[in-house]
C-alpha cells in the first residue's frame, strides 16, 4: 500500500513552517501561498520509475508525493494520464523538428483544473471541510462542482456573469450553488472572502489553498515519464493564476531530489492574452511582483486573471528557467484553434491555442530553434468555448 509522505507545509515566501493536518489557506505569518513538503527519501523508496509501470493511469499513481493520507478519501473521476501527442505536421509548419501537445482537454470536466480539484477536494474532505467555495473564471468552477458532487460535499461557485455558458450549465448540473457576479474573478474572490466565515465555507481559490498546486504538479511527473525520463527543451504554458506552471516547476525539483532526472530544466514560457497580461508586463519590466492588470478583457476566460497571489512564484520560475512571457491577441488565438484542429485532430481551448500563436513568434524571432524539443500545454477542450466561434461560422 502506497501512502502520502507529506511532512508539513512551508510558506513559499517567508518559509515559516505550518502543520499540514489542519484545514488552512495561506501563510499565517505573511499571507502568501503555502507549499506541501514531503519526505522525498521515503517517497523515493517505493515511488520509482519502475514501480510506476505497474500502477494505474490516474494521477493517484503518484500517491507518495500527494497530500491525501487515507486512500479512502480519494475523490476520483479518472483525472490525469492524458496523452502527450507528437504533432509532426504542425511542427513542420512551425519550423521545428519535434513538437508535442499535452492534451489536458481529455480530463474529467474537459480541463486540467480537474487535476487540482481532485486532490484539493479529497484533502479538504479528509480534513473535515463540508462546504467548499471557489472564485473562478470558468473551468475551476466546473471542476470543483464535479468533485464536490462526487465527494458528497456542497459547492458554492462565484463566477463573472460573462463566463462561457458551458461552465455555468455544468456547475448547475453538478448541483452546485452558482452566483454570477458583475465583475472579474478578483471580485468573485472578494465576495467569498467577505462571506466565508459566516457561511462556514472553505476557500478553494487557486494558491490560497495548498493542494490544488499538488494536483497540477502531476503534469510535470507525467511529462517526464512520457518523454522517457527526460524533460523537453521548451515549454509553453497558458498562464492565469499560475498553478500549472509553478506546480510543474516543483515537480521537476522533486524528481531531481529523488534522482530521476538531472539538473537541466526546460525554458518555460508563459503565454497570456493581450487584454490581460500582468505576468508579461511584469516580466519585461524586470519586476518580481505583478501589478493588477487594468480593464482585463479576453475571451480566453482561463487567462482572465488580472491579479495572481502566486505572481512572484511564476516570475521566478520563468527567470530561473531562462524562459520568457508573451501575449497573444484573441483573434490570433481563435485563428490558431483552427490551425491546431486541422493539423492535429485536437480541438484546443483558446488558451491552449494561444501557445501555438506564441510559438510561431518565438520561432520567427529565433528564440526557439528548430532542434529544440518543444511541448505546448493544451489546458482544456475547445468544446467549452463554442461562443468564441459564433462570429467565425
Ligand atoms: C485555469 C486555466 C488556465 C490557467 O491556468 P493556471 O494554472 O491558473 O495558470 C489556462 N487554460 C485553461 C483552459 C484554464 O482553465
Ligand atoms: Zn509566509
Give a written overview of the molecule.
- The chain is α/β, with parallel strands linked by helices and 393 residues long.
- The protein has a domain at 84-109 and 214-392: Rossmann fold (3-Layer(aba) Sandwich).
- The chain is 37% helix and 16% strand.
- The chain has 13 helices and 13 strands.
- It has a six-stranded mixed beta sheet with strand order 4-5-13-10-11-12, sandwiched between helices. Strands 8-7-6-9 form a four-stranded parallel beta sheet, with helices on both faces.
- A hairpin with a 5-residue loop joins strand 1 and strand 2 (17-18).
- Helix 5 runs parallel beside helix 6.
- The longest helix is centred in the middle third of the chain and has 15 residues, at 185-199.
- It is globular, with a radius of gyration of 19 Å.
- The model has no long low-confidence stretch (mean pLDDT 97).
- Bound molecules: pyridoxal-5'-phosphate (PLP) and zinc ion (ZN).
- Zinc ion is lined by residues 11, 13-14, 16, 27, 29-30, 32.
- Pyridoxal-5'-phosphate is lined by residues 111, 113, 139, 206, 238-244, 302, 349, 351, 379-380.
Amino acid at each position: 500500500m502506497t501512502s502520502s509522505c507529506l511532512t508539513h507545509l512551508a510558506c513559499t515566501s517567508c518559509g515559516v513552517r505550518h502543520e499540514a493536518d489542519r484545514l488552512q489557506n495561506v501563510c499565517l505569518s505573511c499571507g502568501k501561498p503555502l507549499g506541501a513538503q514531503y519526505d522525498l527519501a521515503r517517497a523515493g523508496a517505493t515511488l520509482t520509475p519502475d514501480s510506476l509501470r505497474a500502477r494505474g493511469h490516474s494521477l493517484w499513481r503518484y500517491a507518495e508525493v500527494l497530500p491525501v493520507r487515507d486512500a479512502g478519501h480519494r475523490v476520483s473521476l479518472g483525472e490525469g494520464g492524458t496523452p502527450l501527442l507528437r504533432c509532426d505536421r504542425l511542427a513542420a509548419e512551425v519550423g521545428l523538428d519535434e513538437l508535442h501537445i499535452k492534451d489536458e482537454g481529455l480530463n474529467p470536466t474537459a480541463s486540467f483544473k480537474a487535476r487540482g480539484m481532485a486532490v484539493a477536494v479529497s484533502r479538504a474532505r479528509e480534513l473535515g471541510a463540508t462546504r467548499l467555495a471557489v472564485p473562478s473564471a470558468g473551468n475551476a468552477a466546473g471542476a470543483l462542482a464535479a468533485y464536490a458532487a462526487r465527494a458528497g460535499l456542497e459547492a458554492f461557485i462565484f463566477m463573472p456573469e460573462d463566463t462561457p455558458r458551458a461552465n455555468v450549465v455544468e456547475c448547475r448540473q453538478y448541483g452546485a450553488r452558482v452566483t454570477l457576479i458583475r465583475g472579474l474573478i478578483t471580485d468573485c474572490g472578494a465576495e467569498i472572502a467577505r462571506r466565508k466565515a459566516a457561511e462556514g465555507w472553505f476557500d478553494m481559490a487557486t494558491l490560497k489553498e495548498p493542494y490544488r498546486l499538488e494536483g497540477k504538479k502531476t503534469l510535470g511527473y507525467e511529462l517526464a515519464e512520457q518523454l522517457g525520463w527526460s524533460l523537453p527543451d521548451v515549454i509553453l504554458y497558458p498562464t492565469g493564476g499560475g498553478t500549472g506552471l509553478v506546480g510543474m516547476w516543483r515537480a521537476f525539483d522533486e524528481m531531481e531530489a529523488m534522482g530521476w532526472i538531472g539538473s537541466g530544466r526546460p525554458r518555460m514560457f508563459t503565454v497570456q492574452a493581450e487584454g490581460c497580461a500582468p505576468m508579461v508586463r511584469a516580466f519585461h519590466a524586470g519586476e518580481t511582483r505583478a501589478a493588477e492588470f487594468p480593464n482585463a478583457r479576453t475571451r480566453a476566460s482561463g487567462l482572465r486573471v488580472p491579479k495572481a497571489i502566486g505572481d512572484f512564484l511564476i516570475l521566478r520560475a520563468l527567470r530561473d528557467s531562462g524562459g520568457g512571457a508573451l501575449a497573444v491577441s484573441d483573434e490570433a488565438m481563435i485563428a490558431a484553434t483552427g490551425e491546431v484542429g486541422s493539423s492535429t485532430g485536437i480541438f484546443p481551448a483558446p488558451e491552449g491555442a494561444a501557445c501555438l500563436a506564441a510559438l510561431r513568434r518565438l520561432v520567427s524571432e529565433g528564440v526557439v530553434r528548430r532542434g529544440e524539443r518543444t511541448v505546448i500545454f493544451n489546458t482544456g477542450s475547445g468544446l467549452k468555448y463554442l461562443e468564441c466561434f459564433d462570429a467565425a461560422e
